[in-house]
Amino acid sequence: MKTLIYAGPQEVRVKEMDVPELKDGQVRIRVKYCGVCGSDIGIYSGKHPRAKAPLVLGHEFVGVIDQIKGSSEKFKIGDRVCAYPLISCGKCFACKTGSPHVCNTLKLIGIDIDGGMAEYVNCYENVLVKLDDSLPDKVAAVVEPLAVVIRTLHQSKFKALDNAVIIGAGPIGILTGIVLKHSGASKIIISDIDDSRLKMCEDMGFTAVNVKIQNLIDCVNDATDNVGADVVFECSGSEIAALDITKVCRIGGTICMTGIHKMPHAVNLQDINFKEQTIVGSRVYTMREFEQAVQYAHQIKDDIEKIVTHIVPLDSADKVFDLIKNPNEKTVKVIVDCE
What we know:
With 339 residues, the protein is an alpha/beta fold. 30% of the residues lie in helices and 28% in strands. It folds into two domains: 2-131 and 300-337, Alpha-Beta Complex (Quinone Oxidoreductase, Chain A, domain 1), CATH 3.90.180.10; 146-281, Rossmann fold (3-Layer(aba) Sandwich). The longest helix is centred in the middle third of the chain and has 14 residues, at 143-156. It is globular.
């Protein structure tokens, strides 16, 4: 089978491999699409702390069950599925107290074990979620990042008619805006430096702020009568965003850290005190939230399809990170066609 292998920093290869043998409780999935995630970009750059070469990339995949080891009461050959990619130890404090998604030794398919940028991938059937035929494959390939967004909205305690600021118009930031729009946000302000992504945000009805030429704090104050946002979603992981989050959030508002900051950044903790703000973290998602993402994707599938800007054949996927780095390509969400 063909696979996309992380071979070392700044190096990926399309490689032929044997189809892996099924273990008890596993099914073999013939992969249709696999999304490229920010964590895949981190792996490619050589900066991911756990991913080791050689590794088949990909944890955002959708496909059809091709073979089942033994019998299954839940699935049959031909079922379309996507996979909850988190691997928890089941023994640590988080796992034993009902939060295995923040396991002390959390691992993921496609990061710690071979993933789904391949013609076939094996998964244990207890992590699979069946897909309705009416959900397009292109949308199903975005279920995993959608689950990230559902988790972050739950963590933020967002309420209908709240206004919101999103810092960072990457796939997660734009998905956050989409979910907020469909959840009744009264105003959505999203900032970035990429003109094409901001244009997409404008077309979706968001107020887009280009922080290369506009001051985000001034724009938020103008839009909220100097009150600030009810909820702020930090989706960029950038140093300047860490300083801006408390300034654009209102007194008593909530800041949700959606993006992962790769190093410590300065935050104005005095604002947290004086404005009695709440700052909350968000990491991946629970199994229930992943299943909710599968169901919710049906309702917002038209908007989700808009963020998938490029589909790359597996045969030429060794160039996918060059594509993403090229500003002229105007990528948002890139997925690999593994058929």
